[in-house]
């Protein structure tokens, strides 16, 4: 018979790593499963300025922050496996996770920290400029575009609220929207239209981005006329920012038939990270929540691990 872990954590982003740290410190026999690199979205962020306790003497990047988190998890003896989980069996006292090779991992509790990813802008060469001009988080990256030009793709509440936020830093913010009117709430629209720094490109989508290592050019297409507009960075800036806010996609595809309560693909939890299945918790961007940041993900992970420890203790 194989090992039945006290706790299995799926996903090694900030939520999963924080859960691993706390699980290890609670002396739970903990297994952390990640299919690729640690860190999730934050791993591709070149600079971080808003995480409490980060390094200030030297530049902090997503990679450096995650590397330290990973080391902390290792210190407390958490077991690690690199595997792509394809099936879950979460009901009952022993939960089972099965990977693409047929390996089965069993645990008394599971913390789902699979995260979410921004819906791509959908332009050519997009992946080449992630973290090099293209961003999906104004709160994270606005400071890096101080007194520069910035473009925002989207027209809903989040896009316009983030565009307004970006005007605190950028000298000019242009919203690129595929329709001829915004989808944001009227109150948000009114605030946006009063902002002198905000400009709009209607009926438009970004077709292509390019640059020599950093984003300094894009092609915008009018969806009604087909007209192409080339946008170039100001020579004095050398680059511009392009922010995508057209929604997030939770990484919950493998959980569709798990019995978990969902909302728009996100996992529903209470404030203590309990799902509707006993012994199963969710943490970080994968759950229904109002703010998706490293600091909130880490807090979720800590709470989930604490609740898992209580659950295991009550089983004995």
From TrEMBL:
<feature type="domain" description="FAD/NAD(P)-binding">
    <location>
        <begin position="5"/>
        <end position="301"/>
    </location>
</feature>
<keyword id="KW-0521">NADP</keyword>
<keyword id="KW-0560">Oxidoreductase</keyword>
<dbReference type="InterPro" id="IPR050097">
    <property type="entry name" value="Ferredoxin-NADP_redctase_2"/>
</dbReference>
<dbReference type="Pfam" id="PF07992">
    <property type="entry name" value="Pyr_redox_2"/>
</dbReference>
<dbReference type="GO" id="GO:0004791">
    <property type="term" value="F:thioredoxin-disulfide reductase (NADPH) activity"/>
</dbReference>
<keyword id="KW-0676">Redox-active center</keyword>
<protein>
    <recommendedName>
        <fullName>Thioredoxin reductase</fullName>
        <ecNumber>1.8.1.9</ecNumber>
    </recommendedName>
</protein>
<dbReference type="InterPro" id="IPR036188">
    <property type="entry name" value="FAD/NAD-bd_sf"/>
</dbReference>
<keyword id="KW-0274">FAD</keyword>
<keyword id="KW-1015">Disulfide bond</keyword>
<dbReference type="InterPro" id="IPR005982">
    <property type="entry name" value="Thioredox_Rdtase"/>
</dbReference>
<comment type="subunit">
    <text>Homodimer.</text>
</comment>
<dbReference type="InterPro" id="IPR023753">
    <property type="entry name" value="FAD/NAD-binding_dom"/>
</dbReference>
<comment type="similarity">
    <text>Belongs to the class-II pyridine nucleotide-disulfide oxidoreductase family.</text>
</comment>
<dbReference type="InterPro" id="IPR008255">
    <property type="entry name" value="Pyr_nucl-diS_OxRdtase_2_AS"/>
</dbReference>
<keyword id="KW-0285">Flavoprotein</keyword>
């Amino acid at each position: 018979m194989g090992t039945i872990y006290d706790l299995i954590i799926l996903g090694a982003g900030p939520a999963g790593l924080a859960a691993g740290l706390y699980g290890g410190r609670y002396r739970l026999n903990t297994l952390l499963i990640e299919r690729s690199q640690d860190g999730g979205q934050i791993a591709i962020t070149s600079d971080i300025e808003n995480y409490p306790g980060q390094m200030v003497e030297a530049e902090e990047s997503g990679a450096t922050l995650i590397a330290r988190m990973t080391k902390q998890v290792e210190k407390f003896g958490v077991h690690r496996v690199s595997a792509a989980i394809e099936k879950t069996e979460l009901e009952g006292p022993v939960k089972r996770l099965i990977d693409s090779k047929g390996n089965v991992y069993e645990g008394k509790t599971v913390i789902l920290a699979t995260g979410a990813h921004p819906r791509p802008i959908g332009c050519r060469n997009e992946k080449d400029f992630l973290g090099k001009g293209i961003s999906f988080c104004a709160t994270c990256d606005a400071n890096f575009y101080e007194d520069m030009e910035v473009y925002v793709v989207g027209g809903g509440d989040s896009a316009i609220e983030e565009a307004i936020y970006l005007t605190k830093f950028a000298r000019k913010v242009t919203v690129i929207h595929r329709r001829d009117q915004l989808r944001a709430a009227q109150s948000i629209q009114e605030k946006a239209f009063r902002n002198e720094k905000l400009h709009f490109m209607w009926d438009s989508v970004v077709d292509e981005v390019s640059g020599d290592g950093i984003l300094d050019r894009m092609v915008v297409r009018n969806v009604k006329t087909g007209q192409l507009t080339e946008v170039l960075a100001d020579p004095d800036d050398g680059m511009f920012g392009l922010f995508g806010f057209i929604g997030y996609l939770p990484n919950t595809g493998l959980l569709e038939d798990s019995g978990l309560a969902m909302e728009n693909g996100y996992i529903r939890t209470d404030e203590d990270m309990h799902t509707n299945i006993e012994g199963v918790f969710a943490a970080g961007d994968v759950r229904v929540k109002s703010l998706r940041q490293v600091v909130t993900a880490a807090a979720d992970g800590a709470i989930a691990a604490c609740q898992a420890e209580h659950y295991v203790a009550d089983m004995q």
